[in-house]
Design brief:
This protein is of the alpha/beta class and 254 residues long. It has helices spanning 13-25, 65-71, 95-105, 133-152, 188-192, 216-220, 230-244; strands at residues 3-7, 30-33, 51-57, 80-87, 109-117, 178-179, 226-227, 251-253. The protein has a six-stranded mixed β-sheet with strand order 2-1-3-4-5-8, with helices on both faces. A two-stranded antiparallel ribbon has the order 6-7. It starts with a strand and ends with a strand.
Length: 254
Amino acid sequence: MSVYEITFSPTGGTKKAADIFTKSFSPESTYIDLCSQKTDCSAYSFQPEDICIVSVPSYGGRVPEIAVKRLGQMKGNGAKAVLIVVYGNRDYDDTFAELQDVLEEMGFVCIAGVAAIAEHSIMRQFAANRPNEQDEKELAAFARRVRSALEEGSVSGDLKLPGNRPYREYGGVPMKPQAGKACVRCGYCAGECPVGAISALDPSGTDTKTCISCMRCIAVCPQKARSVSKALLTAGSMKLKKACSGYKENELFL
């Protein structure tokens, strides 16, 4: 049995949750980065005995479109999949349903799902510093439960996960990062952008039509030179304040 950690995590929150779960599930695993444009997802063809821990953030209650595209290039061949959906304290809506549909279409057998909380990738005051110590304990315990169920043969391919079909509509968010005066045009953000929305020839700009507002360029910029409009950020925070307030719990579906 080989274990694969397949993750789309532009700002690191999803990867942090996925790492906690995966390390508790198995001491050894292979990491596949869905964010990188260099990852040839079509080269991955799994076996029935493999375990794939697939982790994505919820963008407006949906799986990020680029993650759907890259997962859709893989061949499941009956490999078992654990689905981890990470969200910034609002809701995951139809993310599980969409992710399950994508994976099953590619031949994976979905055996478990985990909803995990992480710091909001745009409005970082929501679920700040999560996953925290308590989250780590819960995610590790979830991993042990899934591993035990797998070893006992009590998992099935008839997993019921939350979500609606058709999925809720998601039109993106208007906040598109731009470079400020501190930009030295090093081009690092261009190489790290999951969708190629930043030109290596002019990294100070952003193709707003291509940009998915994942905020990866802000997270990785060595000069901290990229940001979004403060006015839009304030408006967005006010809009989400009620929905993102309170302490949300991690969940296991098995």
